[in-house]
Amino acid sequence: MEAAFFDLDKTVIAKASMMAFGRAFHREGLLGRRALVKGLWTQLLFVRFGAGPKRLARIRRSALATTRGWEQAHVRRIVEEGVGEILPAITYADAVALIDEHRRAGRRVYIVSAAPAEIVEPLAFHLGVHEAIATRAVVDERGRYTGETEQYCYGPAKATLIRELARRRGIDLSASWGYSDSATDLPMLEVVGHPVVVNPDRVLRRVAHMRGWEIRRFERVVGVRAESAPQEHRWLAPGLAAAAVGSGGAIWWAARRTLR
Is 140 a catalytic residue? Predict the structure, then answer.
């Protein structure tokens, strides 16, 4: 069996998945205005410049501290209720086409992301992929986040989790595909036979040129009419692709609307 493994942020979607739901978290009383604006600014930097291991570690610590005490079920409900509205405006059309292409070829398709499972899994379901591999947080006996993680799906851990999955599912990794934008995902790309870099950061672009890997640029977000879309992509509402997702335009629009 062959498979295709997709990173999520800046590979399948144009922004950080956690902050894509920032306004919804604010509306539900989970994020204050200051935390929301700080998160939106961090997202702008992430979209424009990417994030190395040190910056991602800071973002992770900040996110864990912010979400400590949140109810896991509440977070999942917010994401599941909002994903149909949010996802079309931030998803790359080329990524949707590639996911469909791999599915038609009979390959298993996976999203592999350092983002929380409560966000990644609903997104993966709406994208029509088979399964999600994501970071999993520790929850206490009341179902609230403790600020710790039991599975951090980042860097070399992504490759480890993919290998474990391949053993369980009987996947031939040498005949499988991997897609990512970040040099932190080099272990993930090295574990498959067909690595493809998407919107790469400078380090990953240099590595791709040295190794002769395929480089792709995704820019246009989706705008598929619901009645003409494949069944697994009926969530793609018409007109939502007009939302600005490049260079932080949507970020500032969201922040302005929130602070009014």
Answer: no
Q: Count of CB atoms within 10 A of residue 239's CB?
A: 10
Instruction: Report yes or no: 137 and 99 within 8 Å, Cβ to Cβ.
Output: no
Question: What is the rounded CA–CA span in Å between residue 6 and residue 97?
Answer: 13
Which tops the pLDDT comparison, 43 or 183? Answer: 183
**Is 7 one of the annotated active-site residues of the chain?**
yes
Residue 164 has pLDDT above 90, yes or no: yes
10 Å Cβ neighbour count for 68? 13
Average pLDDT, stretch 33-54?
A: 47
Cα dihedral: 63, 68, 69, 72 (round 10): 60
How far is Cα 117 from Cα 151, in angstroms, rounded to an integer? 10
List the catalytic residue out of 7, 181, 185, 201: 7
Separation in Å, CA 237 to CA 15, 47, 86, 111: 19, 24, 10, 22
Residues in contact with 224: Cβ distance below 8 Å, sequence separation at least 6, in sequence order? 88, 96, 233, 236, 238
Which is the catalytic residue, given 9, 181, 185, 201? 9
Q: What is the torsion angle, in degrees rounded to the nearest 10, for the CA atoms of residue 64, residue 66, residue 70 and residue 76?
A: -70
